[in-house]
Design brief:
Radius of gyration: 22 Å
Strand content: under 5%
Largest sheet: none
Helix content: over 70%
């Protein structure tokens, strides 16, 4: 009996994951559409993606990453 219950529970988990994966794909497609729309109006998508990534960071992590980037640029003579 417990094997039947475990199999049913496993099937339900798998079905939930499949539904969520499908939703995730739909959202990813929507995000892609927004980037394409921004690109068609003249915005640089690569820079927009970098800004989105930076906005996800906490300020102290962002400051640390920017300082490290500046250090690396200086070391390579990119200033």
């Amino acid at each position: 009996m417990s094997e039947i219950i475990a199999a049913d529970q496993l099937r339900l988990f798998i079905e939930r994951i499949e539904r969520l994966e499908e939703e995730k794909k739909g959202i990813a497609d929507d995000i892609k559409d927004v980037y394409n729309e921004a690109k068609s109006t003249g915005f640089d998508v690569k820079t927009m993606r970098a800004i989105v990534r930076l906005r996800k960071m906490e300020k102290h992590h962002r400051d640390e990453a920017e300082a490290l980037l500046e250090t690396y640029k200086a070391a390579l003579g990119l200033d």
